[in-house]
Amino acid sequence: VAHPMIAPSILSADFARLADEAAAVADAHWLHVDVMDAHFVPNLTLGLPVVQSLLKATDIPLDCHLMIEDPGRWAPPYAEAGAHNVTFHVEATENPVAVARDIRAAGAKAGLSVKPGTPLEPYLEILKEFDTLLVMSVEPGFGGQSFIPDVLDKVRAIRRLVDAGELTLLVEIDGGINADTIEAAAEAGVDCFVAGSAVYGADDPGEAVRKLRERAAH
Ligand code: DX5
Ligand code: ZN
């Protein structure tokens, strides 16, 4: 990809210093915000009040990744609050198209996320309702896990459709992205790379973002 986008995940940041942690990656494309409800995934993070505060604390567009049940009920308020992207999981709802339309009507970009084991074939027809496809390359729930390379087949398949002009969609990858794994993801056709521990585990998060971007641009 010519212009790789890096989205640092604040899941690996210091939650007591989120404004500073955002400032440390000021030239990131998006700031990735993992919302977990302890039901869809076995972990609990943050919700709408924290997102509302973050929106006031940073100019970086927020990429909200909702790992929650019942996104039809909970997703639109993130769009109304001013999140740039609101992404939810296809496994969490019976009616992803209705949720996408509500998100877009509320003024945000709509994203669809798939767990590593979820195939894309059943959803190809609905992807036109979305602005981004977030391919999970670890099981959602925790930072610091190892990249699952098999998911790159899904990335390649969608890349082909986008390059053929059959779809307009940004392809985003999330989980285990670091200096060693980002090149394979970039080669498969990823546009946007989420990185948590590789950014906030580094001594200089801003420098880590720049290094990842350079690697992806190879
Ligand atoms: C995991 C989250 C990821 C997480 C990635 O469920 O969706 O965004 O922060 O962390 P790393 O980059 O450490 O795998
Ligand atoms: Zn995420």
UniProtKB/TrEMBL annotation:
Reactions performed catalytically: D-ribulose 5-phosphate = D-xylulose 5-phosphate
Residues at the catalytic site: D34 (proton acceptor), D174 (proton donor)
Residues annotated as binding a divalent metal cation: H32, D34, H65, D174
Biochemical pathway: Carbohydrate degradation
EC number: 5.1.3.1
Domain of life: Bacteria
Keyword Metal-binding belongs to the record: yes
Requisite cofactors: Zn(2+); Co(2+); Mn(2+); Fe(2+)
Cofactor binding, note field: Binds 1 divalent metal cation per subunit.
EC class (word): isomerase
Keywords of this entry: Carbohydrate metabolism, Isomerase, Metal-binding
Record Pfam families: Ribul_P_3_epim
Binding-site list for substrate: S9, H65, G141, F142, G143, G144, D174, G175, G176, G196, S197
Function field: Catalyzes the reversible epimerization of D-ribulose 5-phosphate to D-xylulose 5-phosphate.
Family, as annotated: Belongs to the ribulose-phosphate 3-epimerase family.
Protein name, as recorded: Ribulose-phosphate 3-epimerase
Source species of the chain: Rhodococcus aetherivorans
